[in-house]
Design a protein that fits this description.
This is Fibronectin type-III domain-containing protein. The structure is a single chain. By secondary structure, the chain is an alpha+beta fold. The protein has two domains: about 15-75; about 95-180, Immunoglobulins (Immunoglobulin-like, Sandwich), CATH 2.60.40.10. Helices cover about 30% and strands about 20% of the residues.
Length: about 180
Amino acid sequence: MTGNANFPDPTPALEDVQAAIEDYQEKLAKASQKGSPLDISLKNERKLILANVLKKLAFYVNSIAEGNMPMLLSSGFSLFAQPISGLVPSIPTRLRMSDGPLSGQIRFDFDKVGSNAIYEYCYAFQKDANGELLWSDRMSTTSSVKNMLQAVQPSITYYLRVRAINSNGVGDWCDPVSLIAR
């Protein structure tokens, strides 16, 4: 993707992606040559880190390309299946917020939408002069369960909304739900 005009500002940065790849390759080589349990554990840890970095990069590519096949192919990612014409994902249902395991955390879950959806969510804890919620930047997740909002302020009401994204487009936001943080 280096120098690809379709993706001018990749997130995460390509330098970070390359560093994660090289770190994993180094740990893999060491673990493959009769590595100790520590070497194998380090390799497995780096594999998870690399997978997370690549998921974030894939989310960026999908967000920018918005289903445009030439753009997707120019990213260098392998496409498992060609997008088929269909429907944008439905609205996520049964969004639930609950106290996280620690003070300053809110857990949220919702019903899964299809099998190939990723999700965007944003939260708010303030309103503007017109009473409209001031939403945070969008964040992404691939899971519909055990998601966490971190570093929330106790005794503040937080609002949350979620939407699904698939190869056919972006679904609508669900109705916001709220919870007073503990």
